[in-house]
Amino acid sequence: MNIFFTFDYELFLGNLSGSPERCVIRPTEALMRIAATHGVRFVFFVDSGYLARLAADRVRHPALGREYDAVLRQIDTLKRNKHEVQLHIHPGWRRAIYDDGNWKHDNERYRLHDYSKTEARGIVLEYARTLEEAAQGKTLAFRAGGWCIQPFEHVAEALWDAGIRIDSTVIPGAFSSTGTHEYDFRTAPADSRWRFSCDPAREDRAGRFLEIPIGAQILGPWFFLKFSAIKLLGKSNSGRFSQFGDGSPIGSSKGEILAKLLKKSVAPISCDGYRSQSLESSYLNAARKNPDADFVVIGHPKAQSRYSLENIDRCIAIMKKDSRNRFTVFSEVAKE
After folding, report:
1. Which helix (DSSP H) or strand (DSSP E) does residue 46 occupy?
2. What is the pLDDT of residues 179-234, one digit of tens each?
3. Helices (H), ranges, the chain
4. Distant-in-sequence, close-in-space partners of 239: CB < 8 Å, separation ≥ 6
5. CA-to-CA distance for 92 and 111, rounded, in angstroms?
6. Phi/psi at 191 (nearest 5 deg)?
7. Helix pair angle (221-232, 254-262), 10° resolution
8. Dihedral, CA atoms, 257, 258, 259, 263, nearest 10 degrees?
9. DSSP assignment string, 247-316
10. 117-135 and 62-80 are packed helices; what angle lies between their axes, rounded to 10 degrees?
11. pLDDT digits (tens, 9 = 90+) for 33-42
């Protein structure tokens, strides 16, 4: 099995963006320690809009200059330790306002296709260039912010011109239609990778892009009831369950929350916080089904906790016991 541990390296986009120290620096250091223990490599999809704003505003705001230097040092450390840095885009950073140590986000234009095709192209090329300068190397894989990659035709040429050849955004079977998150992956193939042209959720064997989707799982109401109970009891804010990040996400609507509590839903295989409890079972199910397939896990440094790090560490140890497993990164796929 080809195993990819991928992490979206970013701040929060809700009312409180959080600090870089708590959201990315310290949790990423903890993840690197786990990787070093097991001799594996991780992929970090760096939110390059955040990087671009730090670079642009660091002269006016000395604190942002210090943030920028700290993030660049960590990206350099990731590269030196053989981890991979790839492109992640939240276009709303173009409209974010820095005020008194916090970023204020206007999420009315959350998706790339909320901008004109010309504007979206400019964002993709600028952010790809910013990341390549920070990482001192080309990127070839992409993950859309909030999984909002459709309609793909809106950014296809821009991504191709930016050197992107692989996408890892699709969660097969997942669907969302909210004020910010809009995607429909219900047509995605059952395979663990495929080529595509116009829509990453539809196979085109002659397509020039390769999709390596995030692993998907079915979560029932019981999972979210237990998660809600932990939050209500305050356990999510203390001890093993407390996330490292000190910001707040874009909130789910009451309708979204109710739907998860009433019926099964498709979710990514995640190593974040409480969700990491299903990591081991998801892996074992995937290995039984097809030991030669790709197994892509998504996580976020900001959403890690002592609990999730314990689960990641234990699960990697289990995965390592199978000699057929290969921990890999996207640049290795490009060589195949």
Report:
1. strand 43-47
2. 789 999 999 998 999 999 999 999 999 999 999 999 999 987 777 677 666 665 55
3. 20, 26-38, 48-57, 62-80, 117-135, 156-161, 221-232, 254-262, 279-289, 306-320, 330-335
4. 306
5. 7
6. -70, 165
7. 120
8. 120
9. S-PPPPPHHHHHHHHHS-EEEE-B-SGGGGGGHHHHHHHHHHH-TTSEEEEEE-GGG-BHHHHHHHHHHH
10. 70
11. 999 999 999 9
Q: Which among 236, 247, 231, 227 has a CA at the least distance from the CA of 300?
A: 247
In this structure, how many other beta carbons lie within 10 angstroms of the beta carbon of residue 63? 12
On whether the pTM is more than 0.85, the answer is yes
Locate 283 and state its tokens. 């892996």
Place of tokens 């995607």: 183
Task: Kindly provide the residue ranges of all beta strands, DSSP E only, lying in 166-228, ordered along the sequence.
Answer: 166-167, 175-177, 182-184, 194-196, 209-211, 216-219
Entry field: residues in the chain: 336
